[in-house]
């Protein structure tokens, strides 16, 4: 084995790995099981930009992944359930003045579906930040 390939696993034929074994980032190597993390992201329907998975794993910024937004139907369902009242400030708003929010944050395993959707008024959603 030459010096160049040392440390790289030449035996990895996993499709999921996709040559990741060869990535030399210390941060990536410090993650307990990057392949499991990546596989999970690859299979996650909420991740709309699969090409953003590597950058996401490197810096943890969810914006790389273009996480699926709630559909109008999901938002309307949540809006009606809440009777138009913002969960945070408890004031009433028009549907157009509100935004869908993950009840359980996506990065904690919350899905982008009607059950995990709550409506916040825009100022409250902004204040909450990073969803
Ligand atoms: Zn509010």
Protein architecture, described:
The longest helix has 10 residues, at 34-43. The protein has 2 domains: 20-65, no CATH class; 72-128, 3-Layer(aba) Sandwich (His-Me finger endonuclease fold). It is elongated, with a radius of gyration of 20 Å. The relative contact order is 0.11. Residues 1-10 have low confidence and may be disordered. It is α+β, with helices and mostly antiparallel strands and 131 residues long. The protein has 5 helices and 2 strands, in the order H-H-H-H-E-E-H. Strands 1-2 form a two-stranded antiparallel sheet. The protein binds zinc ion.
User: Total number of helical segments?
Assistant: 5
The CATH fourth-level homologous superfamily of the largest domain: His-Me finger endonucleases
The CATH class of the largest domain is identified as: Alpha Beta
Rounded to an integer in angstroms, the radius of gyration calculated over CA atoms is 20 Å
Characterize the overall form: elongated
Ends apart, CA distance between termini: 46 Å
Bound molecule types: zinc ion
Give a brief description.
Helix content is about 30%, strand content about 10%.
Layout of helices and strands:
Layout (H helix, E strand, L loop, with lengths): L25 H5 L3 H10 L9 H7 L12 H10 L16 E5 L14 E5 H7 L3
Antiparallel strand pairs: 1-2
This protein binds zinc ion.
Features:
single chain; 131 residues; alpha+beta; His-Me finger endonuclease fold; 2 domains; two-stranded antiparallel ribbon; 5 helices; 2 strands; 8% strand; binds zinc ion
